[in-house]
Design goal:
CATH superfamily: Decaprenyl diphosphate synthase-like
Structural class: alpha/beta
């Protein structure tokens, strides 16, 4: 299938898996894999946007990742801080709007300041909408949403009978961001790992054995070809 014949998703979500294994294969430390993986994110953002993708959401650090060895967590936090600081210039250059989803309250002050700075600097950009999930877990997101909604009900700002999907989604981290049509996971694992559970109700899943640092344009095209071949009819009799 030619690129111009592809049915390109409006929103692609990616689980960036395999950085550590990629580094191990090259007899390098895990943190080297994470560094190369972050560089690949920039490349894929550019490629995806040129192909017509309007929203791209990546899983950078989950709520479960805190259980990793402290040395690795510290290195990841440092890498994320550097990436976010650098992204201020990158977002301006590429006209990219960047938003961070997840529970930011548990991040250190430096990281929170970097997030605020980046989101403010890029909020009016009109190119790719790029979401980075940091300290994100879908179950945590849903619980936070329920608590916020319950508080509104308790204060008589919302009537229980008025709660529906549209209202509930206003309390999710992804409010005003369309649900992903395609979710890609690299490295061969075939699970969602607590990622965008609500948002992925009608998402197509694409799993590849390719490790994230090796995921390139050719592999992205393969994923979109798979998506293009799906018959997406919801609620219809086929």
């Amino acid at each position: 299938m030619q690129e111009n014949e592809l049915n390109v998703p409006n929103h692609i979500a990616i689980i960036l898996d395999g950085n550590g294994r990629w580094a191990k294969k090259k007899m390098m430390p895990r943190n080297y894999g994470h560094t190369q993986g972050s560089k690949n994110v920039e490349k894929i953002c550019e490629i995806a946007y040129k192909m017509g993708v309007k929203y791209l959401t990546v899983y950078a650090f989950s709520t479960e990742n805190w259980k990793r060895p402290k040395e690795e967590v510290d290195a990841l936090m440092k890498l994320l801080h550097t990436y976010l600081e650098t992204s201020v210039k990158t977002s301006t250059k590429n006209n990219m709007r960047i938003r961070v989803i997840g529970d930011k309250s548990k991040l250190n002050d430096n990281l929170k300041r970097s997030i605020e700075k980046l989101e403010e600097a890029s909020k009016n950009n009109t190119g790719l909408n790029f979401q980075v999930a940091i300290n994100y877990g879908s179950r945590d997101e849903l619980i936070r949403a329920v608590k916020a909604l319950a508080k509104e009900v308790k204060e008589n700002n919302i009537q229980i009978d008025n709660i529906d999907e549209k209202l509930f989604e206003q309390y999710l981290d992804t409010y005003e961001i369309p649900d992903p049509e395609l979710l890609i996971r690299t490295s061969g694992e075939q699970r969602l790992s607590n990622y965008l559970l609500w948002q992925s109700a009608y998402t197509e899943f694409y799993f590849t054995d390719v490790l994230w640092p090796d995921f390139d344009k050719k592999e992205l095209v393969k994923a979109i070809e798979y998506y293009s071949g799906r018959n997406r009819k919801f609620g219809a009799i086929t």
